[in-house]
# Entry
Amino acid sequence: MTLKTAIIGSGNIGCDVLCKVQRSELLECTLFAGRNAASPGLALARERGVAVTDRGAEGLFAALDTFDLVFDATSSAAHQSHAPMLEAAGKVVINLTPAPNGALCVPSLNGDDLLAARNINMITCGGQASIPIAQAMTEANPDIHYLEVVSSISAESAGPATRLNLNHYIETTESALRQFTGCCNVKAILNINPAKPNVYMQTAISALAAQHDLAVTEAAIARAVARLRAAVPGYDVIVEPHVTGDRLFTMVRVTGAGDYLDPSAGNLDIITAAATKMAEAVARDRGERGPAPAEALAMESVA
# Structure
């Protein structure tokens, strides 16, 4: 039995999620919602045999009985408007916008704790790329007093919603860094690079402390990378962890699967892969536990 899902937002992120959902044995996309009937995203969904609506959230709410989980790939403002109503309707919402709503989620770190959550916040692409490494650094070096993450992405992979939501991107990434590492003094930076050919997503992580245990750090980072690569095979450390003075530094690159945009758009891939992994975990959990109470009641009524 597959978990029925809907996607709202027909841009790059929504299209990449659609590709991944259709490849999953645990998920089925029953509706793809956008606001422009002529958008490439809606055309892609039609080509792939998925029902579409060009009425956005209105169209989504008109078809509530066709899905149980929604991937929200709209904008921060739009998410804050319609997510509470979807939650009230008993739907699980996986938030791929930078909106602060919901439980902050990095699947390899706390995914198992959020299987019953109604709004699962996938933070940002920079957050998914950096937080497992930053968490490993602070686990190995408890005296870290400052963390900084700098992500660079190609301009082609940064859609209008990403550009519109840069403030929330920074705020949500920094909030998640604090939550997962326990370090209060953090900074997140995003660089959008127009270079051609497209640059690959890269994220630099720096940590300041009076002392660092490099050997323990390397082992902790290796474990974090192994967990991440289970969902994102293109995740690689390209600058090995090293210490200069009081600064511990490493850098990662994310090569995307090339499902929708070219592999340079690893920023797309790391957040959509994380979101799909969480949806599959929810599907697996429901399969083990049986239908949720509301669903069980509806089945009894039909019987």
User: Anything to note?
Assistant: Confidence is low (pLDDT under 50) at residues 294-303. The chain has eleven helices and twelve strands.
